[in-house]
Amino acid sequence: MTQNAMIPGVVDGTVTPSVDAEGNVSLHIVIRDVGSRSQGNDYIEIVLTGSDARELLSAPVPGKAASVPCSVGVRLQPGPSFASAL
User: Fold this and answer.
1) In this structure, what is the dihedral angle of CA atoms 16, 79, 86, 7, given to the nearest 10 degrees?
2) Residue 53 belongs to what H/E stretch?
3) Going along 32-70, which residue ranges are E strands?
4) Is 25 helix (H, G, I), strand (E, B) or coil?
5) Over the Cα atoms of the chain, what is R_g?
6) Whether the model pTM is above 0.85
7) CA distance 44 to 31
8) DSSP characters for 58-70?
């Protein structure tokens, strides 16, 4: 599932979107998720305003990426993890 990856060492995970009452979008990413959300996984959360999420998801031109501002949270677990895979 790492086709078209722009960063070497990309690993698989899962992403779960959520939208709050104000329309802000959070993407909860679990790195190396094997079907359970155990404490051993690394987590990344990307938060976009509703308007930035709509802009990001609007029909992009092939070969041209959209850039929008976001907030990012990272929780890395000690031991073998996402960071050690790079």
Assistant:
1) 20
2) helix 50-57
3) 42-48
4) strand
5) 14
6) no
7) 8
8) S-PPTT-------
